[in-house]
């Protein structure tokens, strides 16, 4: 595509001009945006870039392994993988407010990046895959007065005390443009086509208190749901699909015993940019099959519901 080839060349020139011979660290999340940013920056400045993948304990099943495989083994881009789950889950313990969760996660990411930069002998820049909708949705909501709907974990700049400057080469792009750029850069379709996954991860899919145990239950339910979506051939028709673990327990019957376990909500939407969205119209057989599998395979869940809310008035994530 002509315009993406032009964007790529221009972005590379800009990154080189901004960075000079400085060192850059790039936070990888496993999602499309940070992956495209990393490959673009690597093309611009090569070995001056080190990627950092932080496991905050709130990732989907298999995510950490996939990122390491793609970046270290396939692209050969220097990558530091850090298990920071104790740190993140410790700071989040007992926190229920969605905005507080987001702020804590954003600040903890910065702390970890700073530590990793220091370990690498210092870095001059921090690169992120921030997109245009991340910027506007953190600031205001289309058409209305300026109100914060959600503070995206990577928007809002860096703390004053920090010496690192931000590099955000995707800041003017929408998701479909980032995917196009990813293809232009030769990233595998499997990666380019991945559903968006928010930086705060499972933390904002678990209303109420966050615990390692709840994260584990949610991770399992989410994996079963996505497996059913892939088997049904629906993955690419859906913008984003995920499970949510509700802080509500209900009564059920398992075998001939009473159960009293969590409710799991399933979400799937179609969208073009994440700014508006429609609930995906699954047929009932699909939903019933998936619900049965989740309840049979995931201990701790005994009821499954489907979220049919559009955005607006709902948002895609529950927090
Ligand atoms: P909402 O829930 O606001 O989500 O309708 C719109 C899109 O943005 C993603 N999202 C985030 N992505 N950091 C991110 O990187 C965040 O803090 C964040 N919050 C929401 C969400 O998954 C959806 O694709």
What does this entry look like structurally?
This protein has about 325 residues and is of the alpha/beta class. The chain folds into two domains: about 1-190, 3-Layer(aba) Sandwich (Rossmann fold), CATH 3.40.50.620; about 210-305, GMP Synthetase, Chain A, domain 3, CATH 3.30.300. About 40% of the residues lie in helices and about 20% in strands. It contains ten helices and nine strands. The protein has helices spanning about 1-20, 30-45, 65-75, 85-90, 100-120, 130-140, 175-185, 190, 210-230, 285-295; strands at about 25-30, 50-55, 80-85, 125, 165, 240-255, 255-270, 280, 300-305. β2, α3 (about 65-75) and β3 (about 80-85) form a beta-alpha-beta unit. The protein is globular and about 70 Å long. The two termini are about 35 Å apart. The model is unreliable at about 140-145 (pLDDT under 50). Bound molecules: xanthosine-5'-monophosphate. Xanthosine-5'-monophosphate binds next to α6.
């Amino acid at each position: 595509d002509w315009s993406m080839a032009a964007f790529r060349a221009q972005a590379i020139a800009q990154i080189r001009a901004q960075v000079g011979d400085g060192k850059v660290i790039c936070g990888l999340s496993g999602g499309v945006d940070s992956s495209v940013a990393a490959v673009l920056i690597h093309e611009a400045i090569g070995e001056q870039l080190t990627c950092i993948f932080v496991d905050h304990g709130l990732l989907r099943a298999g995510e950490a392994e996939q990122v390491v495989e793609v970046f270290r083994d396939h692209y050969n881009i220097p990558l530091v993988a850090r298990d920071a789950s104790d740190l993140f889950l410790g700071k989040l313990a007992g926190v229920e407010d969605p905005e507080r969760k987001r702020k804590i996660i954003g600040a903890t990411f910065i702390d970890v990046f700073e530590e990793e930069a220091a370990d690498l002998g210092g870095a001059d820049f921090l690169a992120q895959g921030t997109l245009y909708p991340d910027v506007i949705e953190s600031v205001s909501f289309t058409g209305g007065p300026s109100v914060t709907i959600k503070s995206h974990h990577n928007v809002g700049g860096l703390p004053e005390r920090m010496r690192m400057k931000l590099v955000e080469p995707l800041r003017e792009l929408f998701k479909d443009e980032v995917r196009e750029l990813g293809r232009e850069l030769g990233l595998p379709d499997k990666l380019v086509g991945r559903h968006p996954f928010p930086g705060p991860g499972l933390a904002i899919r678990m209303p109420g208190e966050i615990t390692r145990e709840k994260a584990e239950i949610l991770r399992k339910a989410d994996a079963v749901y996505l497996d059913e979506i892939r088997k049904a051939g629906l993955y690419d028709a859906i913008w984003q699909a995920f499970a949510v673990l509700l802080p509500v327990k209900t009564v059920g019957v398992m075998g001939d015993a009473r159960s009293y376990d969590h409710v799991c909500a399933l979400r799937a939407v179609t969208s073009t940019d994440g700014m508006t969205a429609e609930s995906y119209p699954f047929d009932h057989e699909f939903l019933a099959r998936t619900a049965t599998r989740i309840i049979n395979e995931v201990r701790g869940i005994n009821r499954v519901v489907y979220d049919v809310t559009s955005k607006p008035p709902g948002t895609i994530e529950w927090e």
